Amino acid sequence: MKFERQKPDTTLLRPLLAKSVAKGLSQIFLEGQYADKVIEFTLRSSPKAGSRDRSFIAETTYEVVRNYRMYAEILGQEPRKEGDFWKLIGIHLVLRGQNLPDWRELEGLDATAIREKEAILRQERRFHASLPDWIDELGEKELGKQWEETANWLNKPAQVVLRTNRLKTTREQLQRDLIEEGVYTQPFGDGDALVLTERKNVFRTLAFKHGHFEVQDYSSQLVAPMLAPEPGMRVVDACAGGGGKSLHLAALMQNKGSLIALDTLSWKLDALKQRARRGGISNIDTRAIENNKVIKRLHGTADRLLLDVPCSGLGVLRRNPDSKWKLNPEMIDSLRKTQQDILQSYSAILKPGGRMVYATCSILPSENEEQVRRFLESEAGKSFQLLSDRRILPQDDGFDGFYMALLEKKQPAATAPTPAKTGKKTKST
């Protein structure tokens, strides 16, 4: 299943729209702002813009960010001012089969030269997959022959996937309700996923406002079922963030039992509370990790534990393309240390016989399988056993790259009973 990108109609383009995109790109690349926040602010600043204009702003911004390495190479320089980003927009339109608009900001661009240079650069993966050299080298080192296809898939737009909230509706009913609101989807897999066949702003639908679904990639939707929580259990989501997986766990628990959502950032937990209220979920208790005591108080109390740890996010570059320009090797080294620290300290939350899932949205074995192996070989991990694990690459089904491992904490070995004393002496021989 592939999301078909609609080409912008340049007959309706206005320089004002391109100016919004160029300004946003300047904020992303020159000021270090996040693409999703920049686009959100830009669209909020233009409330009267029609759906076609809003689509052009969002999609053009993301596509230039996604293909920045290629476009900058064609331009012949790293953009240093807003005017340079106008030219990247022009290059983008040409390479998407559009006519070059007759705008003064695009003077000096030649459509034929752009296409010829793109054809030459496309022979090298770092350009056609638009990657910094160090990420391209790291991917090849860790994934070998799989990296070529993976890199290409990571430079495609991500599909929009919904997760049905089973506490309020069924997947079939949600699909029918969305059709009435002009949103068309296709079911995928055996669970709760619906994939949009055409991009729409689903957050404006009544179905969303009534809490009938959350936006969550299909790969991410596989994590909570692997943990297999049951109604009445005590479950801890120790790196909850905005709470997408917490909400899924609560639904699988049928809103029964106790689900403790932890995070170091309290504002993320506040967002989770709002999402839980909308979804009709009442069994989530949010707790900010302000010090080690928060974790120690939970030692040995959880039936299930989810460790969706901080990671490089290299599996989700399709939906966060600006992150590949913000990452650096030192950041990944630091993240690997954080991942192992979380495994070492947070695993104590689990009861004997309980189960834990370690998950990342990275495709790198050094953040995934190797971290689990290191944990199992450590003192803290000697009481755990690996039951199963799964690595998902974007080319597998067309969704995000992910890793998840299911581990069980062993029951303590039974102690042999001490023989009872009879009080009788034995004869020596």
CATH superfamily of the largest domain: Vaccinia Virus protein VP39
Question: Which CATH architecture of the largest domain would you pick?
Answer: 3-Layer(aba) Sandwich
> Any low-confidence stretches, pLDDT <50, length ≥5?
1-12, 423-429
**How many E-type strands?**
11
Tally of separate helices: 19
Radius of gyration in whole Å, from Cα? 25 Å
Helices and strands, in N-to-C order? HHHHHHHHHEHEEHEHEHEHEHEHHEHEHE
| Assigned CATH class of the largest domain | Alpha Beta
- Average pLDDT reading: 93
Through-space gap between termini: 84 Å
Sketch the major β-sheet.
Answer: 7 strands, mixed
Helix percent band: 40-55%
At the fold tier of CATH, the topology name of the largest domain is Rossmann fold
Question: What percent of residues are in strands?
Answer: 15-25%
Main sheet: which strands, in order across?
A: 7-6-5-8-9-11-10
Which descriptor suits the 3D outline?
globular
Number of domain modules: 3
Structural class: alpha/beta
Q: Could you please describe the fold and organization of this structure?
A:
It is a single chain. The chain is α/β, with parallel strands linked by helices and 429 residues long. It has 3 domains: 10-123, N-utilizing Substance Protein B Homolog, Chain A (Orthogonal Bundle), CATH 1.10.940; 161-215, Alpha-Beta Plaits, CATH 3.30.70.1170; 220-409, 3-Layer(aba) Sandwich (Rossmann fold), CATH 3.40.50. Helices cover 41% and strands 15% of the residues. It has 19 helices and 11 strands. The strands form 2 sheets. A 7-stranded mixed β-sheet has the order 7-6-5-8-9-11-10, with helices on both faces. Strands 2-3-1-4 form a 4-stranded antiparallel β-sheet, with helices on one face. Strand 5, helix 13 (244-252) and strand 6 (258-263) form a beta-alpha-beta unit. Helix 1 (15-29) packs antiparallel against helix 2, helix 4 (68-75) crosses helix 5 and helix 17 (329-346) packs across helix 18 (369-376). The longest helix has 18 residues, at 329-346.
